[in-house]
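Worked example 2:
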Amino acid sequence: MEAIYTQGIWMAESLQQRTRTQEKLWILVTHLGDPKAAFLLLFPFTYFLSRRAGVAVIWVAALSEWLNLVFKWMLFGERPFWWIGESRLFVNKQPQVRQFSSTCETGPGSPSGHAMVTAAAWWVVVSSLGSYLYTRTHSVLLSAVPYLLYVIMLVAVGLSRIFILAHFPHQVVAGSITGIILGVILSRRVPEGRPLLFFFGLSFGLLLGTVLLHDGLRKLGINLSWSIALAEKWCSHEEWIRLDTAPFSSLTRDCGALLGLGLAQYWKPGGYSLPWAPRALCLAFSSMGLYHVNRLPLPIQPQGLFYGLFFVKFVIVPQIVMVLVPGLVHLFTHKKRKD
């Protein structure tokens, strides 16, 4: 693996030097590829276009990110920003690379979570749009356009992760391929109409099962916190180490979102039937609500409290998008029509 890692470092150096003027664009792309963007941006946008597609997005995003966590624990992938120092292969010739505020993620590096979750969640949108265009136009060429844009987006997200030294090239390729496969498989089984008990069992089953796996591996002498120590050691700015990038943060996000999805469907089975104008209003208000929920500061100590509140935060996300905002808009527009 040394040769693969070394070539990845030189590729990152070349990418940084050749596209230095596009630094802000790469940072924007890596933020749009963040797994949480699937929950906070893609989910509400898709939901108000197609209810089933919106439910599929949050379903696929949660399960693919959870699987990404398990894969990372099993594969022990390095990250470029710490491997440069740990490998001691660059003592005589240091690569001319920089770190950024999004570089210092604390989980293992393989496969890339950004690439994997982006590929899986966006597959739902792209496949739905492609099918819609083909049904309306019967043009293979036109229906292929979303897939072309999809590939371009995955390449851009992958390059952004290499640019900021968060991943090696083979990690983003592995994440993208795995995400596409998961998107195809998971989008065929969207949990609409499932009872609340199903989501409750799935959410807490994944949470408990992952914690037991972590503790079991630790008792066998496998330290799953090794990546956190390396991130703290080699990150150039201490404040760039954030608890919301830790493995258990993604776990609590996924489990919270799944429980929230079940609660939202329990409170309002079938959702609200709204015309296009109220849907646009719902999207605007939902986006504003999720923006403020995401910005809520959480105490980082004790960590158990942080993870608990992080879980609750993502339980709330589907409630805002599927129940609270559409309910208020429906109530307002319904009264207006009656008057």
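The chain has a mean pLDDT of 94. The chain has 13 helices and no strands.
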